[in-house]
Amino acid sequence: MKMVDVGDKEKTQRVAVATGRVRMSAAALRKIRSNTVEKGDVISAARLAGVMAAKKTPDLIPLCHPIALAGVEVEVTPRRGGVEIRASVKTVDRTGVEMEALTAVAAAALTVYDMLKSTDRGMVIEDIALEHKSGGRSGLWTRSRK
Fold first, then answer.
1. Is residue 69 part of a domain?
2. How far apart are CA 50 and CA 46, in angstroms?
3. Which of 14, 35, 89, 107 has its CA 20 to 30 A from that of 100?
């Protein structure tokens, strides 16, 4: 195993977007919408957890490069049957931010679960995926919709 040498790569603007979902009971979703969860504001906590996780990705994923993040945005949106999570991460560096975006979504989803587990232990974290990345040698990639 080794960390890939990116020293000869040029710094470019890079963006990655990841999404995921937490499926839950109607009762748990009602608590989010009415902001009556005992631990507090689920959406704000999940957004903050996602941003913090993106910044700590190299501490969690062994071979990730520590990179300077230019911006991290995490959206947590209640939808029918659960919440949808979307993270967008930007940098100007020698390697991409796909792992940071995916880590942000995972941490936000785990925070939702933690805050609502007393209401619904059957929640399901699902469909965490990279949706888009741009920059670097490989250029633009967007998930195709079937």
1. yes
2. 6
3. 35
Residue keyed to tokens 């007393």: 118
Question: Are the beta carbons of 116 and 67 closer than 8 angstroms?
Answer: no
pTM: 0.95
Q: What angle do CA 54, 64, 115 make, to 5 degrees?
A: 30
Catalytic annotation present for 59: no
Q: Evaluate whether residue 49 is within a structural domain.
A: yes
In a domain? residue 145: no
Rounded CA separation 56/61 (Å):
9
Q: What is the pLDDT of residues 5-51, one digit of tens each?
A: 888 888 999 999 999 999 999 999 999 999 999 999 999 999 999 99
Q: How far apart are CA 81 and CA 137, in angstroms?
A: 39
Tell me the CATH number at 30. 3.30.70.640
What is the Cα–Cα distance from 40 to 25, expressed in whole angstroms?
18
Domain count, the chain: 1
What letters, b where the CB count within 10 A reaches 16 and e where it falls short, cover 12-27? bebbbbbbbbbbbbee
Residue 82 lies in a domain: yes
Q: Which of 5, 93, 114, 127 is catalytic?
A: 114
If you average pLDDT over every residue of the chain, what do you get? 96
